[in-house]
Here is the input.
Amino acid sequence: MSNLALTGATGFVGSAVLDAALAEGHQLRALARRDQPARDGVSWVRGDLGDRAALAALVAGADAVIHVAGLTNTPDPAAFATANVAGTANVLAAMDAAGVRRLVFVSSLAAREPQLSAYGASKAKAEAEVQASGLDWTTVRPPGVYGPRDIDYLEMFRTAKWGFVPLPPGGASSIIHADDLARLLVLLARADAAPTRHQTYEPDDGREGGWSHKELAAAIGRAVGRERVFAPHLPRFVLKAAAAADRLLRGDRAKLTADRIGYICHPNWVVRAHLRPPPAIWQPRITGEEGLRATAEWYAREGWL
Here is the structure.
């Protein structure tokens, strides 16, 4: 059992990490912007990545820090640097001041191609901050993360129910269930994870070559009970027009932004085999077909579909 500090604990991935850590018997101190309900094994620290006092309280006495929090989508590209680069630097400074050495940092596959988006560039810069920190770090670059409570893939499930899944230009990507990712992050935070230090990993569901966009659309269709879905590849100019319309309709809550178009149109977001975590440490347990089906069932039970 360890004392873990967790950022992003109320988000989609962070909440899965919280559950996984508690299931393993760890004690947690977790950062949250707002007051949270009491929970056994969790001490909530109110604040954000810009609050140095809150970060100091978060990491004090921790055996390891799992840094999940970050900004993934915003209409203001400059905000990525504030949240993802400066926010990570603040976590590193708090750890250094408290003498906490072990860090598990959640980045993104988007960091592989920083020229494509402000988001990817911010994650690449944050990775550089981590590598220069002198801490015992491990960086994890997840591909597309899905599962119960996720809102990013939700739109694909919703449209698949009607037999239609619009896609970006042709390409392939990897995916991972949030529970598998959470289990990996907690394993890496353990004190006996020495072989993983100063490593960057790209985990996935174990499917070689990832999923072509059409394969993933078809799998989501099957998950919602559709044997066939119409899944056309939309050209970049159509996606740009859709992003402009989404901004008009939903304002700052728009899901499809101009920055996102930069990386969703990239043809290859498949994890690289040599950067998968060592099988002796971790292997995925949830296949894509199984996980997508269970996710669709959760959406249906919760009334999200």
About this structure: The radius of gyration is 19 Å. Residues 138 and 197 are 5 Å apart (CA to CA).
